[in-house]
Amino acid sequence: MKKLHKNVFYHTTAGGLNVGCVIGEDAVVCVDLPPDPSEARAWRAQVAELSDKPIRAVVFTASDRMSAESLAAVGAPTAVVHDAALAPSVVQAEPAPAQPFESPPSVARGCNDAPQLTFSDSISIVLGMKHVTFVDVTFQGGYSPDACFVTVRDSGIVFAGDHVAVGQPPHLAQANLERWLAVLAALKKTRTITTLVPGRGPAGEPAEAVDATLDYIKAATVRVRALARARRSRSEVGALVPDLMMLYAPKIARSKASPAYDVLAHEMRAGLERLYDELQTKGE
């Protein structure tokens, strides 16, 4: 587990996903969970070493990070997700922030009131009474229809989920690329964020992490657009995968003999197919 701030930590799972926790006076908020229940239990044990307070909620940065088994493994009473992931229910959402990355100024309480807490634009979880920590969750919607950022207010730290990937290609299969690019552009310009925790890869300075993600999206777009303009079929995007794998996959996954190669190549192809469809819809 790596310490980012006096009460903010993150951990990289065996599968390369980043998860985090925010320690408050009275409770803990987790950001995503290891998808494997046994690893989730191990993560809960690590959190328990930092604080004996209960986990109040787990915020999922996107619905594809949700796991009922992992939630049960850590004993979390509440899952916080965007209402595109679950039917809207228990809480009045706050107004949308002025910029995609900004934290809302107001606070929503009552995260223990329901097993699933949903929101449309933004919501804040309050930890502590004397020394208060605000965990702000804001809808972004680029990586996937329910993707969110989690910001620890006044710390300069944002958990960007799979909007950002460092050292490997981001997953494009659910993407609204126009929205995603707008989110990344806004994130790169902000001066209030000093540490970005990507969905995959090491935490660090926001601009460098955003540039790594943008580089892949732009490279993939150029290649798929050229293929589409040459009137090549959607099925032919698979021919682009080997070159992009050599350029953007982690070194351990670049060899076809690696078990990781097939998994990442499959994910990459699905993203390229999504990109092809989006470009066709726009007439590009």
What is the count of helical runs?
6
Q: Approximately what portion of the residues adopt beta-strand conformation? A: 15-25%
Q: Tell me the CATH architecture of the largest domain.
A: 4-Layer Sandwich
Terminal residue distance: 45 Å
- Say what oligomer this is: single chain
Unreliable spans are 87-115
Indicate the CATH topology of the largest domain: Metallo-beta-lactamase, Chain A
Name of the top-level CATH class of the largest domain: Alpha Beta
Shape: globular
* Average of the residue pLDDT scores: 88
Major sheet strand order: 1-2-3-4-5-6-7
Pairing-aware structural class of the strands and helices?
alpha/beta
Secondary-structure element pattern, one letter each: EEEEHEHEEEEEEHEHHH
Cα Rg: 19 Å
Brief characterization of the structure:
This protein is of the alpha/beta class and 284 residues long. It has helices spanning 37-50, 68-74, 177-189, 206-229, 241-248, 259-281, and strands spanning 2-5, 8-12, 18-23, 28-31, 55-59, 79-82, 116-119, 122-127, 133-139, 148-152, 157-165, 195-200. Mean pLDDT is 88; it is low at 87-115.
Describe the structure.
By secondary structure, the protein is of the alpha/beta class. The protein folds into two domains: 154 residues, Metallo-beta-lactamase, Chain A (4-Layer Sandwich); 66 residues, no CATH class. 31% of the residues lie in helices and 23% in strands. Strands 1-2-3-4-5-6-7 form a seven-stranded mixed beta sheet, with helices on one face. A five-stranded mixed beta sheet has the order 8-9-10-11-12. Helix 1 runs parallel beside helix 2 and helix 4 packs across helix 6. It is globular, with a radius of gyration of 19 Å. The chain starts with a strand and ends with a helix. 44% of the residues are buried.
